[in-house]
Amino acid sequence: MMRAWLLLGALLVLACGRRPEDEPLVLLEFRQNELDSVALNEELVFFFSRDLEPGSITTDSVRVFDGAGREVRGERRLRGDALSFLPELPCRHDLSDGGFRPGGDYTVILGGFPRPDGLRALDGALLSASLRLRFRTASPEQGTVLFLDPFAPPFPLRLRARSSNPLVLEDGRLVLEAREALDPSLVPDARFELRRGPEEVVPARLELVQNRRDGARLEVVPLGAGLDRRLEPGTYYFTLRDDLRTLGQRTLEPAWRREVPLALIVPSRHVRVDFSARDERPPEVPADCDGTALVLSDGSALRVRYPAAAGDGRDGRVVLEQVPGQHELSASRLEVPAGVTLDLSEVRGPLVWRSQGALQIAGRVLRRTGDAGTAGRLARELRELADGLSNTAPEDRPPLSAWLARVLASDENWTVLIAGGDLRVPPGGALDLDGPVVLVAGGWIRVAGEVRCEGDLWKTPEGGGGILVHGGAIGHLPLRLDPPLTNPLVEPLRIGHTLRLVPGSTPEGGLRVVPLAASASAALAAELEFEAAGGARLLVRFALTARPGEPWLVPETAVELAREP
Known about the structure:
The protein is mainly β. It folds into 4 domains: 2-142, Immunoglobulin-like, CATH 2.60.40; 158-266, Sandwich (Immunoglobulin-like), CATH 2.60.40; 271-304 and 486-563, no CATH class; 308-476, no CATH class. 6% of the residues lie in helices and 35% in strands. The strands form 10 sheets. Strands 23, 25, 26, 28, 29, 31, 32, 34 and 36 form a 9-stranded parallel sheet that branches. A 6-stranded parallel sheet has the order 24-27-30-33-35-37, with no helix packed on it. A hairpin with a 5-residue loop joins strand 40 and strand 41. The longest helix has 14 residues, at 2-15.
């Protein structure tokens, strides 16, 4: 009814023959006027006869009050001739802190003539008169819907953390994020579990700390934390047992598998060591280790990359002094010792040697099958994958394990060497092969001897050295080194990293090394050694234990230096 009168008034004014720019600004429609079931997240919308001047939209010209005369908090938005008011959403379970509350009476005041600070059109025309409009919000007693469903896609609930395995809470705060608003009334009753280590339960509460139409944040706060809401440094496991719901009562599923506790790391509050490469040289060979830990791209931490294709170690420790009787070996450690020459030229079909630890060729391995290694089906596929490598994210590349299974099922003359640690060809060692050849290391490929290949050779990117290829291509293996699902080790595996700190960057004493272990599957040790020249060496070792059947958690750590108290 109101809209009809407003439209009639506007038409009568125009009918008098006055120019549009001489006419006052008129409100044509207010959608919620006199309604008694306005939702608590509903957008108030006002339509005017002309586009509004954005500068006239202020907290004085557009005001909303509740029945007690308190001003409602909210956001004012303008789209041409449409003005909207979005009330602030509640966070408390009783809905008492939102802009609108259930079953409340509300008044909207739009400033207009004769107020000079009222709403104006783009041409300067003032709203014809100040307006007082009323509505009432929905209430459970009336059986009306408290919230409108924005019909947003079902975005998953995510945890704010640095992506790794386990996830790292850099600031020690356990925060869950959604991409739409949540129903606050369901938050206090949502069941969850937070454990420190495998046994210790951490008493905590779940709080909705931000609730907006385009996103919400929940925080798991330890009880008794006071002003410091952070978790103490350590390893945690988080399980969300109950569903949370959007304002439209749709279930918000977590982005992780609900039945598996989410492993989290809260790092220590000390100074981090920067592991980023200071030059182009490879890292030093870590003493008494099977392989080299890799550095994260941002230089903040070390990680262990262990490919599932390194095998199950069923053949134990293998020292090859003669040509083996099988085409596939799966060793815990594999070595061709110095002074030994193995001629594999008569071997036809795929030849695959796997080692869970280091794979070392200190002797000479010869394989000349007459195959250039460029025309086979699998070789062509690798070339095509490599051509599109820049357009493919690492996580979207085909897994090495599945591709290797296809190699073993083929009759192509592949030579594949896979090390869970480092793949080493020390001085005096040699690989003399024709293609196709694949060299894979969970750590680094270290060639101080000689590697020659007639045909295609593919390798993991870390390291290399003296590799010569004739008649084919050499390139980075365009496959993903997929990790095992469960612990495959048959004996402990030691992975390390040695860093030379810049001389003068470390005091001569008064420091201790604080390693942050990130996995129950790995013990971590770090040693800081000072040298006479003033520089320092930092040696970090991961000791991965053999725990068959347990989930494989990839160790990752940020090592810190802390001053002694």
